[in-house]
Design a protein that fits this description.
- This protein has about 180 residues and is α+β, with helices and mostly antiparallel strands.
- The protein has helices at about 5-20, 25-30, 35-40, 50-60, 65, 175-180, and strands spanning about 80-85, 85-90, 100-105, 120-135, 140-145, 145-150, 155-170.
- Helix 2 crosses helix 3 (about 35-40).
- The two termini are about 40 Å apart.
Amino acid sequence: MSEIEQTVRTRLRGLRRAQALSLDDLAERSHLSPSTISRIETGKRAISLDVLLPLARALRTDVETLLAEDIDEDVVIRPTPTREDGRTTWMLTKATGTTTAMKVRLEPSTRRPEQQVHPGHDWFFVLEGRVQLFLGERTIIVESGEAAEFETMTPHSFIAVGGPAEVIMIFDRDGHRVHRHD
């Protein structure tokens, strides 16, 4: 068995277990038999695209992630600042993940930013300063040491108030497309 095959088998089993899915649960989601999945995980059945695609979908990942080389030799992320429109951003996660984390330094502004709407879910934690969150018709002050979490189909924007603010933001893939500043 090749190293990549073993890696894929380990990833499939690991994802199934991480999602607390039994073989029967995964079989129902993927429309494959439990015995087929078991044989794939144990190396008793070849891995082919006709089983890999439905398994990837059922495990909410993509084939590319399952087949990717182990490139985790360097697990330390060395963020570099990107400056744009009164904010400095440091990406804290690798570009290949399904969730994105970034540190953002906001400069205060007298101009209220335009609210955005997009699919997804956002979360941020204020490390330092104060942030004014505009969430639909509501205006909420989020203080240092507090967090905000909201569905992004609600119109939203935020600014630093009373001085610079630093936040850690975490959002899903849809939120990343809207919030990245590269």
